[in-house]
Amino acid sequence: MRMYDLILKKRNGGKLTKEEIDFFVNGVTDKTIEPYHTSALMMATYFQGMDEEETLNLTLAMASSGEQMDLSVIDGVKVDKHSTGGVGDKTSLAVVPIVAACGVKVAKMSGRGLGHTGGTIDKLESIKGFQTSVEPEKFFDIVNTHGLCIAGQSMNLAPADKELYALRDVTATVDDISLIASSIMSKKLASGSDCILLDVKVGSGAFMKNYEDAENLAREMVKIGNGAGRKTVAVITDMDVPLGNAIGNSIEVIEAVETLKGNGPEDFTLLTKILSAEILKMAGIENAEEKVEEAISSGKALEKLASMVSAQGGDENYIYDTSLFEKAKFTREIKAECDGFISHMNAETVGVACAKLGAGREKKGDDIDFTAGIMLSKKTGDKVSSGEVIARIYASDESRFSSAEETFLSAVEYSEEEPEKRSLIMGKII
Ligand code: URA
Description:
The protein is α/β, with parallel strands linked by helices. The protein has 17 helices and 13 strands. The two termini are 38 Å apart.
């Protein structure tokens, strides 16, 4: 088989066979295929697309290109959740403990921040001592004993995707629905859970800017998951405005803790409860909504988070007393520029402003400032008066403020009329 022929076939709108896709993925994994051949095939795919069968075959080949987690040593149903990424999206930090408090085991691999979006692993590392690099044996043991573990990807899961993603990133071929779906699902399948809940974000802070694309991506991923024998559901949720009020690392952990105590912001609390209940239903738990409420009001979900923190080497006192988190040295208030309503707050731009404060990385391997971030006091739809504080920004380095403030202000638009409300839950694909 020759890569030239595969590229030509796809360029001319042909369909790749399973054997051809396996040949390609094996060659990417063992690096016998030249990056220019891979890039050309990605671009041909970007223009010609892949059908359902090709996408499933690509996903399965990538999922089996490296190690695969065998979760059979963990008793009971194992569930996983994945968000396609957003700004202020700390849902895993609240959903995972709630689900575990209801008796369903969560074995979750998470990632670091990417571009303007934050990552669960970075957020958890703001807790003193917390280890995100967990060997498989310990990972299984923590899930069996405590019911939950959130770790970074220490195993060699889906290495073909790692290679492909790095090339797509620099060849303008990231935003193709089949390629995104197979990339995400290859890692989820290799992670081994029985049930997968996908939170597909849509709006200014998401990969998918419009509902139609988000729905197509959700359908594609659900088909792949179910086609591979995993119970998979996708919920399509709004990411036009940052989720909750806190955007950063430690301040997002604090907001998740407050939500587990019943004091979270309305939008984040609602999404947390809905996603938790969906996962419980997938795991066959009855009266899911009531169980979620009870996990929060009884304090059991908070205890689960504390027990996970302690099992992963962190100081659980941070969960019971969030004043222990290190504070940023500097704070600045950001004020409304006119009277009226906030008609739009571009979530991606807010994410960029947050990264400029030091909460995100400019390049791979950069250190991040856990204390940096943005605390919103007003969001889209809120009425404001000129000069009223709409957000506070935090950083360890005061020189970061002016550029971050300018970027933040460019994200905010005002109107005289109250804007139409977008719903938080926009769709569900089963
Ligand atoms: N996240 C992934 O893991 N892969 C993509 O292609 C896009 C987002």
